[in-house]
C-alpha cells in the first residue's frame, strides 16, 4: 500500500482578509468614539496602514480590525503588527499579513514531528510548506493533533490529505 500524506501550509484567504478590513473601515467611520479623530484603516500595497490622531485611537482601530479578522476565521498569528509611530500630528501603525512557513518555523515543526510524533512518520520541507508522509493514516492524524496542541507562532493548516 502506498504512503498516505498531507501538506502543512500557512495561507490566508485574501478575500476574507479584505472583507475584515472593509468591515473595520465601516465601523471606524460610523462609531461615535471615532468621530473627529481622523481614524482610518486601509490597504497600502501589501500592508495595512492604520492612522489616527492619538496612539490610543490607533490601537483601538487595530483592536476593531483584529476582532473582524477573528470573526472571519483568520488567526491573529498571521497578523504582524508594528508599533504606533508618530508622523506629524498623526500616529500610524503598519501591519502585514504573513503567509507561508518560514525556514526557521519549518525546522521547528519538523523537530516536533521527529521528537513527539509516531516513529513511521517522515516529514520534509518543500519551500514554504511541509509534506508529511506515513504508511498509517492514524499516525498522520496523531501528527495533526500534536501540531494543533503545540504553541507555535505561525498559523498552520493541513491540506492535500490523501
List keywords for this structure.
single chain, 162 residues, alpha+beta, Alpha-Beta Plaits, 2 domains, 5-stranded antiparallel β-sheet, 4-stranded antiparallel β-sheet, 4 helices, 9 strands
Total domains, how many?
Answer: 2
* Radius of gyration of CA atoms, rounded to a whole number: 20 Å
Shape: elongated
Report the sheet-strand fraction: 25-35%
- The number of E-state strands comes to 9
Function: Nucleotide-binding protein.
InterPro entries: UPF0234-like_C, UPF0234_N, YajQ-like_sf, YajQ/Smlt4090-like
Protein name: Nucleotide-binding protein MTE01_23050
Family: Belongs to the YajQ family.
Question: How would you summarize the topology of this molecule?
Answer:
Elements: E1 4-9, H1 14-30, E2 40-44, E3 47-52, H2 55-71, E4 79-81, E5 85-87, E6 90-97, H3 103-116, E7 122-126, E8 129-134, H4 137-149, E9 157-159
Antiparallel strand pairs: 1-8, 1-9, 2-3, 3-6, 4-6, 5-6, 7-8
Describe what this molecule looks like in 3D:
The chain is an alpha+beta fold and 162 residues long. The protein has two domains: 4-11 and 101-159, Alpha-Beta Plaits, CATH 3.30.70; 14-97, Alpha-Beta Plaits (2-Layer Sandwich), CATH 3.30.70.990. The protein has four helices and nine strands; from the N terminus they run βαββαβββαββαβ. The chain has helices at 14-30, 55-71, 103-116, 137-149; strands at residues 4-9, 40-44, 47-52, 79-81, 85-87, 90-97, 122-126, 129-134, 157-159. The strands form two sheets. Strands 2, 3, 4, 5 and 6 form a five-stranded antiparallel sheet that branches. The chain has a four-stranded antiparallel sheet with strand order 7-8-1-9, covered by helices on one side. A hairpin with a 2-residue loop joins strand 7 and strand 8 (129-134). Helix 1 (14-30) packs across helix 2. The mean pLDDT is 89.
